[in-house]
Amino acid sequence: MTPLSILITGASRGIGLTTAKKLAAKGHNVGLFDIDVEQLETALNDKAFKKAIKSNSIAHGNLDVTLPEDWDAAIELMNEKFGSIDVLINNAGILVTGDLPDTNLDAQLKLVDINCKGVLTGCHKVGSQMTGQSYEKIINLSSASAIYGQPEIAPYSASKFFVRGLTEALNIEFEPKGIKVVDVMPLWVQTDMTKGVSVTSIDRLGLNLTADDVGKLLYKLSVAPNKKLTKTHYSVGIPAKVFNALAQISPSASMVRWVNKMVGA
């Protein structure tokens, strides 16, 4: 297939970096962007990018997803280097844990800025560049915590509800333009974000997913023609699939709430 041009946020580590490696290995043009440029440049020294860098199919740079001007610069770089952006993977996000009154308010507000405003700005900026080609899509990173609100990570969970709702709305809104908007909803993933984190739901369910597990799905969704994407939400891992299925078939929210309370409280 013709190489696609894919912009990934939060690409210096974890899910974003793993996905970038998979796409680069298959000859796609990949833009890796992150606020931690030093870590990003270190990551690009990995042998997985050697061939892609040699063939000039890698772009990278600073991107604070909360700043519209940073998005403008990243989009301009992608357009100059590859001519267009076919796929946006809104991966950047942060986590703050603990009972809400016991956590730092500034940290929680920063979480909302990155997880919500960052995704919204990316959809706005990149969506306006898309023309409706058969592979043009936006993939947002949501979470299984967007199925029912989770204790100890309440603002994070709420931010993923925002991502889920935005995805659903834009999936309909962008459809006449031929652009797909979908999200990926994993449970807890073994990344730097969850390293050393103490949350009841992790203690009970474990960290069973890897960045590679999510990266495989992101790769598959990125390179699939839009006509093959028949769903809006894509769960990752058996527990997330079970919780999502339960939420769909439960006659009321009480059962879902009970299950989540047993897992997370």
Short recap of the structure:
By secondary structure, the chain is of the alpha/beta class.
What is the string of helix and strand elements? EHEHHEHEHEHEEHEHEHH
Rg estimate, integer Å: 18 Å
How many domains in all?
Answer: 1
* Spatial arrangement of strands, main beta sheet: 3-2-1-4-5-6-9
What is the count of DSSP helices, taking H or I runs of 4+ residues?
Answer: 10
Unreliable stretches (pLDDT < 50, length at least 5) are none
Identify the CATH architecture: 3-Layer(aba) Sandwich
Mean pLDDT: 90
Please, could you describe this protein's structure?
There is one protein chain. The protein is an alpha/beta fold and 265 residues long. It has one domain (5-264): 3-Layer(aba) Sandwich (Rossmann fold). Helices cover 47% and strands 15% of the residues. The chain has 10 helices and 9 strands. The strands form 2 sheets. Strands 3-2-1-4-5-6-9 form a 7-stranded parallel β-sheet, with helices on both faces. Strand 7 (189-190), helix 7 and strand 8 form a beta-alpha-beta unit. Helix 4 packs parallel to helix 5 (105-127) and helix 5 packs parallel to helix 6. The longest helix has 23 residues, at 105-127. The radius of gyration is 18 Å and the shape is globular.
